[in-house]
Design goal:
By secondary structure, this protein is an alpha+beta fold. It has helices spanning 4-30, 37-59, 69-73, 81-84, 88-95, 98-115, 126-144, and strands spanning 2-3, 76-77, 147-151, 162-166. Strands 1-3-4-2 form a 4-stranded mixed β-sheet. Helix 1 (4-30) packs across helix 5 (88-95), helix 1 (4-30) packs parallel to helix 6 and helix 1 runs antiparallel to helix 7 (126-144). The longest helix has 27 residues, at 4-30.
Length: 174
């Protein structure tokens, strides 16, 4: 079980780790890229499109658009949260996915080494979308006075990646 907000915002850290590995290698081999306004504009467009798709995903119930609003609203209460919920620190640690870092680092290195050092910029696509989703989920939690959890619980078999909620007062400290 991880808190949904932690899951979304930890992606920013994971992408940062991928950039921390990819950028020095790409810049060391290919040199520092020239400031090119067309490439900067393309990265800004990519970031804007990512933010738009993130907003679209959390504000719609349409599954084919990745709509998560319906998932939030159909979340079920977590039974016995004191026994199941991880501490906030454990939730953050569980949210960090090393496999995702590797999966995004390898294409970044390939793009940065084979095409251009600007190739690592494709990682910008992940950040705005996840920030929008994380902020929306945080606002949703505050509006409903609950904490939204993602994961599976053996006692509540709703399926993998189910959404559950608990009271903020039952979350374990530390």
């Amino acid at each position: 079980m991880v808190r949904y907000v932690h899951h979304q915002l930890m992606t920013v850290v994971e992408v940062g780790a991928a950039v921390a590995v990819s950028a020095p290698v790409a810049f060391g081999v290919r040199g520092l890229p020239q400031l090119d306004s067309a490439k900067v504009a393309a990265l800004l467009y990519l970031a804007g499109a990512s933010a738009f798709f993130g907003l679209l995903a959390v504000s719609t119930r349409l599954n084919w658009l990745g709509g998560e609003k319906g998932d939030f609203e159909s979340a079920v209460p977590l039974t016995a949260p004191e026994a199941i919920l991880p501490s906030p620190r454990k939730s953050l640690l569980r949210s960090f996915d090393v496999a995702f870092v590797v999966i995004v680092t390898l294409p970044s290195l390939a793009f940065g080494l084979l095409w251009s050092p600007w190739g690592i910029g494709w990682l910008v696509f992940f950040v705005p979308e996840r920030i929008v989703k994380g902020v929306y989920a945080l606002l949703w939690e505050r509006r409903h006075d609950v904490l939204l959890w993602r994961g599976s619980v053996a006692e509540q078999p709703l399926g993998k990646g189910q959404f559950l909620y608990s009271s903020p007062r039952t979350a374990m400290p530390g």
